[in-house]
Write a structure and sequence with these properties.
By secondary structure, the protein is an alpha+beta fold. Helices cover about 25% and strands about 25% of the residues. The strands form 2 sheets. A 6-stranded antiparallel β-sheet has the order 1-9-6-11-4-3. A 5-stranded antiparallel β-sheet has the order 2-5-10-7-8, with no helix packed on it. It starts with 12 loop residues before the first helix and ends in a 12-residue tail after the last strand. The chain has one domain: Sandwich (Jelly Rolls). It has 4 helices and 11 strands, in the order H-E-H-H-E-E-H-E-E-E-E-E-E-E-E. The structure holds 2-oxoglutaric acid (AKG) and fe (ii) ion. 2-oxoglutaric acid binds next to strand 10 and strand 11. The site of fe (ii) ion has 4 residues, from loops.
């Protein structure tokens, strides 16, 4: 019955290879139109349901350890995917297709994928960070997907990205979190931040990791 049957969601080959090319040359890449609109709507309504049911954690009120740990850098609430809905499974299937395309182009040996919903309240933000800390070779490529329709520039919440860990100049790009837009970043290379959102902001963030045995041989052939 769902409009996003798992097997119906396939990636457009050309758009995917353009995206992965830009990831390879630039360290990050943005694409619109790869996620089917019905899937984006389904994921947003799932996230709204989780919010209403009080099933997100770290909602910015300082009650749990996770929030105390990063409360200064992030004001948002999350929920890990458990693959329990058709929308999650369809998204994971698309992520798997992206993984194949990235591995083919960059030889990164991406292996598994973890991902969470993120809900930023009004005033929510995420300070500048790298998704993978130096020395911890875990997260190699980051994927962010945006879910909110009609996001305007006045709504804030831009994702600012820099081109290298030691780049403290002006951001390379400020990405407006439009519904259906996805962003890929090399997790160890691209610092990024989420500017304060002026309306509730809904996203998915996921990370591909390498498996243990290849974790010390990260060498994008470029
Ligand atoms: O919400 C976003 O745009 C980015 C989220 C992010 O950077 C993260 O979860 O690591
Ligand atoms: Fe991040």
């Amino acid at each position: 019955m769902s409009a996003f049957a798992e097997d119906a969601a396939t990636l457009d080959d050309e758009a995917t290879s353009r995206l992965v090319d830009r990831l390879a040359t630039q360290g990050f890449a943005v694409a619109d139109g790869l996620l089917p609109p019905a899937l984006v709507a389904g994921l947003l309504s799932e996230l709204h349901g989780l919010e209403q049911a009080g099933l997100l954690s770290g909602a910015g009120v300082g009650r749990d350890a996770g929030l105390r740990r990063d409360g200064d850098i992030r004001r948002a609430a999350i929920r890990w995917f458990d693959g329990g809905t058709a929308a999650e499974r369809a998204f994971l299937a698309l992520a798997d297709g992206l993984k194949t395309a990235i591995n083919r182009r960059l030889f990164l040996g991406l292996f598994d994928f973890e991902c969470n919903f993120i809900a930023y309240p009004v005033g929510g933000f995420y300070g500048r960070h790298l998704d993978s800390l130096a020395g911890a070779k875990n997260r190699v490529v980051s994927l962010v997907a945006y879910l909110d329709p009609d996001w305007s520039a006045e709504d804030g919440g831009f994702l600012r990205v820099w081109s290298a860990p030691d780049d403290h100049g002006a951001p390379a790009e400020a990405i407006q979190p439009m519904a259906g837009r996805i962003v890929l970043m090399l997790s160890e290379e691209i610092p990024h931040e989420v500017l304060p959102a002026h309306r509730p902001r809904h996203a998915i963030a996921g990370w591909w990791r390498v498996n243990g045995s290849s974790a010390n041989r990260l060498d994008p052939a470029r």
